[in-house]
Amino acid sequence: MFGPGSNRTPCLVRWSGRVPAGRVSNELVHEVDFFTTLVTAEGGTVPGDRQIDGMDMSSFLLGTD
Question: Residue 1: what pLDDT?
């Protein structure tokens, strides 16, 4: 049994000048990916002293992949 929203919950991303306006995708991005993505997008470093279960999805969000 899946929780509310399951794997297909809509998400809106707005980052003026970075994320292309009007872009629509059916790709999956997991919520744990947002931590890693936001940290690296701001020039930070993901902690290395523990396991972080997330991928940097910035190239996907910015439309460069």
Answer: 47
Residue carrying the six token digits 């809509």? 10
**32 to each of 12, 22, 29, 38, how far by Cα in Å?**
16, 24, 8, 11
Compute, in degrees rounded to 10, the torsion defined by CA atoms 35, 12, 60, 8: 90
**What CA–CA distance (Å, rounded) separates 56 from 35?**
8
User: Tell me: the pLDDT tens digits for 14-63?
Assistant: 888 888 888 888 888 888 898 999 999 889 999 999 998 889 998 888 88
**DSSP per residue over 17-53, as a string?**
TTSPTT--------THHHHHHHHHHTT----SSS---
What amino acid occupies position 29?
Answer: V
